[in-house]
Amino acid sequence: MRMVVPMSTQDDYFSFLPFAWIGEIMMVFSCGLTAGFRVNFYEEPETVWRDLREVGPTIMFGPPRIWRDIVSQIQVKIADSGYLRRRLYEKALALGLKKVDTEFKGYNPPFLTKLSHKIMYWLVFRPILDKVGLKRLRHAYTGGAQVSVDDFRYLRALGVNIKQIYGQTEISGISCLHRDGDVDPWTSGKPLPGTVIAITKDGEIISKSRAVMKGYYDRPESQDVRNGWLFSGDFGMVDSKGHLICIDRMSDIIVLSNGTRVPPQHLENRLKFSPYIREAMILDHGRPYVTAILNIHPENVGKWAEDNNIPYTGYVDLSQKKEVYDLVEDIIKEVNKNLTQNMRIRKFTILYKEFHPDDDEITRTRKLRRRLIREKYKPVIDALYSDSGHVSFLGEVRYEDGRRDTINVTMYIREVT
């Protein structure tokens, strides 16, 4: 990675991800020790965002969920600002998006566009980035899953030099990444020097390099490595520029009863661009249409409810408010406008709790454990494909003080009209 990314002893890296993740090991130990940059750690899990602002790193690596949270923080701050400030921000953002979209197409933006964006960066964007700790950031990386194109465009429009990484633990973490001046929001960049990427006839991404593992400990029957090629289990393609496009896990592609193939991550990322939706899971194999189980963002939706004089007692109560369902339905309608008829979300429900790593519903890097969620919430999923307008579910809730309780909750099923 250091062969294509300039790093030095003058850089600051902010480490806040678990060392069980290969990406953090690569950044902190491999890059940190060879480049000699300063590694900063958070004080407590509850102080991560405050510590990020205090450190102001120059290099940062995080999964898409982290960048989504940062985008959400910015959007909420802007929504709370005055009319003139919002109007200036909207004009600056439109200019920024115009600039980066031109660059994504491989063209050099006009001098006046670049100059105007530079002015807006210092006048509008830099103070915003300072509020979330990104003012000094030179290199921002995302990996572990494909980041939302909307989030990617948004951050680059604000002046954040975010780039996508693709890799696996089995190939020592990183095999592809964007280079400065060659960034595409739909791809994961080109292979690192010494790495070869290919696509099988079934569309599976395979890779070969000196970094590929020899095999799994105590699993000699594994076929993930064959003739030096690592079979990823990811569905993708290589474009005309040599960039890798990772579409989704092959096992996660949804095939509806009419044969329509639906990549769930694409739809989920579009939904999560809203500051009010924290997590989404698209459903379901062999069914006649697409549905979704959603988590609302507690802070953002809570503030929205307060601003609109909607009383609530807690997350469970807030998640099932009619007004919140109306809010989420409007978001889904906007997403559906850019989807083909068969891929549009027909029904949804808002889960009474957030997906949580301690409940094995998501990983520590915010990847959905889809099989477990399907098993755990099977009655909810079945209700999404019935004529019922609600479903009763006996589930567990976790309180801020660590206590757990079992409750019988009624969740509503909303059809998107």
Structure overview:
This protein is of the alpha+beta class and 417 residues long. The protein folds into 3 domains: 12-162, no CATH class; 188-249, Roll (Luciferase, domain 3); 254-415, GMP Synthetase, Chain A, domain 3, CATH 3.30.300. Helices cover 34% and strands 23% of the residues. The chain has 12 helices and 20 strands. It has a 5-stranded mixed beta sheet, with helices on both faces. Strands 8, 9, 10, 11 and 12 form a 5-stranded antiparallel beta sheet that branches. Strand 4 (139-142), helix 6 (149-157) and strand 5 form a beta-alpha-beta unit. The chain is globular, with a radius of gyration of 22 Å. The N and C termini lie far apart (48 Å). The mean pLDDT is 92. Pfam families: AMP-binding, AMP-binding_C_3. It comes from Caldiarchaeum subterraneum.
What structural keywords apply?
3 domains, 417 residues, globular, five-stranded mixed β-sheet, Luciferase, domain 3, single chain, GMP Synthetase, Chain A, domain 3, alpha+beta, five-stranded antiparallel β-sheet
